[in-house]
Design a protein that fits this description.
Length: 602
């Protein structure tokens, strides 16, 4: 194994070993060796005779501060929030439509919402289930695999990216593949164990130990009342002694937090006060849960640390394929006692996301499985839209969502739980996420199972179309229920005499707010901590108010009126100063922000 400290020298060595025809396999997310990749891309930009084809997913980038309020908020705190993470050169070139012809980049999963409107990436996107992405990659005959690794006691760990790489290294050992393996060592990457996660130095042709940089930090978003309500509903459905998968984001955090509240006994009083028709609350986890998930998220780690996720299979309480999270998350894994950390097995997604391969053992282990995943919209007949919008622009990708839905139907006593807020704001108006039809389909209606909004739970498996429509309208926002009923009746999918139960006629945001208001101490905005400081946490809901109301003249007028009519926020001057305003009279933007702050506190 050749060990280098200069990224450009390592890139030149790769060119020499491949003859300049490089088909590069890069891990999803955190596992990208940024220094090496940038050096390779720069070499290929400078030398058109080099051909570089990159296959990857989830290119990590801090958000572009842009201009206006977003720039005022993110600009001063960008590195503190997201880490001083180096920009990936190929991403910058794609955004400028300046990628030279001798470099291609294909991704099968995009950082959510970051590539909308970027034609080169939208055109190069490859739609593939996570478990099938490996085979799509293999068909391209990769001759270089480069990955960020952790080093300890003379061994290397694939750490947070065993997802596809572990399988590729195993197939190379079996003589089925041949590629140059390059590891870029990072001192902050946790040394994780698991089947195929730890490799000897002989597995790598080159290792690069460059100047270190901060790992990407995925900032936690605040958990609002709707997300907390969804989490509390979902926690009722998780069976003690069962198997759990949860996804990333505010709703994933809400689900994990609700499970912690359930285990401590704090959830049932909140749940019994719910103004919706729901199953009985669950009790503490006497047997504990087993985690099987493509992504190890912060909420699942918190459940592991609290002893909720503790049921072991082959010595492991969790099997996961990859992680991208906060700096605190990485630190907790690094500082965890090695024997405790070994109970978290990093595995390929061919293990976590699929039943084929050791199927009997997987079936025995994955009892009472609950697979919890988010969606953007759901049709009243059960089609789930999670990755693409109406004009074909890809928001993220299917990832492993379909894989887990498929498992839920294949396993005995397993359920797929799709979560989404009942409404969203766009163009200054509220829109329903429960719709008559959806523009694109990630999970088709014949695999409909459980759907959860803040207004309740719709159990759809095995139900007729009419029953499904009625159940989904019952958890839709009441502002949109009559329109949906009318559409269904005109289409002959609901009886003409159908009426919605009165218990489902109070589905308003205020209903949820009023239910949860007495329990705010148990339902924090950031249940698993935050990199935002106190004033930034105060500003976040106000900025959300701004984004909702400023697209329309009526909304802007409402904010300006509230800035003059409502009493000041107690920390209004500090908040305005953080945004670079001397006072609320510094201009229209400052006055609108003042109104938003006053609306939030009121």
């Amino acid at each position: 194994m050749q060990r280098l400290h200069d990224a450009e020298a390592a890139a030149r060595e790769i060119v020499a070993r491949t003859g300049g025809e490089i088909r590069l396999a890069l891990p999803l997310g955190l596992g990208k060796p940024v220094r090496l990749v940038n050096a390779l891309v720069k070499l290929a930009c400078d030398d058109p005779s080099i051909r570089l084809a990159i296959f990857t997913a989830l290119t990590l980038e801090p958000p572009d501060p842009g201009s206006g309020m977003k720039a005022r908020f993110l600009g001063p705190a960008k590195d503190r929030l997201f880490g001083a993470y180096p920009a990936l050169l190929y991403a910058e070139l794609l955004r400028r439509d300046a990628l030279p012809d001798n470099i291609t980049v294909n991704e099968f999963f995009l950082l959510a919402g970051r590539w909308l409107g970027v034609a080169p990436m939208q055109q190069a996107y490859i739609s593939a289930n996570y478990t099938h992405a490996r085979d799509v990659l293999i068909a391209q005959e990769p001759n270089v695999l480069a990955q960020l690794v952790s080093e300890q006691d003379g061994s290397f760990s694939l750490s947070g990216n065993t997802d596809i790489s572990a399988d590729l290294f195993a197939m190379r050992a079996e003589g089925k593949l041949d590629f140059v393996a390059v590891g870029e060592v990072h001192p902050d990457l946790p040394f994780m164990q698991g089947p195929g996660a730890v490799l000897t130095p002989e597995a790598f042709h080159l290792t690069l130990v460059p100047e270190p940089y901060e790992l990407f930090s995925a900032v936690k978003r605040p958990v609002d009342a709707a997300a907390h309500a969804i989490g509390l509903h979902v926690s009722r459905l998780i069976a003690d002694g069962g198997t759990l998968q949860i996804g990333i984001g505010a709703i994933g955090d809400a689900v994990a937090h609700a499970l912690l509240l359930r285990h401590s006994g704090a959830a049932p009083p909140i749940q019994r006060a719910a103004p919706f028709d729901l199953p009985a609350p669950g009790g503490p986890f006497e047997e504990g849960l087993h985690g099987v998930t493509e992504m190890l998220v912060g909420g699942l780690l918190a459940l592991f640390e609290a002893g909720v996720v503790r049921r072991e299979v082959d010595g492991h309480a969790i099997a996961a394929g990859f992680f991208v999270d906060t700096r605190d998350f990485y630190r907790r894994l690094r500082e965890m006692p090695r024997e405790e950390r070994a109970r978290i097995a990093m595995t390929p997604v061919s293990f976590t996301n699929a039943l084929y391969g050791n199927e009997a053992e997987k079936r025995t282990a994955r009892v009472k499985a609950r697979f919890v995943n988010g969606a953007m919209q759901v049709s009243v007949m059960g089609d789930v839209m999670s990755d693409t919008v109406e004009n074909g622009q890809v928001v993220s990708g299917v990832g492993g969502q379909f894989n887990f839905v498929e498992q839920a139907f294949a396993l005995h006593d397993a359920r797929s739980i799709i979560t989404l807020p009942a409404t969203r704001w766009s163009g200054g108006k509220r829109h329903s996420n429960i719709r008559w039809s959806v523009a694109t389909t990630t999970v088709p209606r014949h695999m409909r199972d459980v759907v959860v909004t803040e207004y309740g739970i719709a159990d759809l498996r095995g139900r007729s179309d009419a029953e499904t429509i009625a159940a989904l309208i019952a958890i839709a926002d009441s502002a949109f229920q009559d329109e949906l009923i009318d559409r269904a009746q005109k289409a002959g999918k609901l009886p003409k005499g159908f009426t919605l139960p009165q218990s489902a006629r109070n589905n308003w945001p205020e209903t949820v707010e009023n239910w949860l208001a007495p329990y705010r101490a148990e339902l924090p905005d950031f249940p698993f901590g935050s990199d935002f400081d106190e004033i930034e946490r105060l500003l976040l809901p106000a900025l959300e108010e701004l984004s909702r109301h400023t697209p329309t003249l009526r909304g802007k007028a409402r904010l300006l009126r509230d800035a003059l009519r409502l009493p000041p926020h107690p920390r209004e001057q500090e908040a305005l100063a953080r945004m670079g305003f001397d006072s609320r009279y510094a201009g229209g933007e400052a006055l609108a922000l003042s109104g938003a702050l006053r609306r939030v506190v009121t």
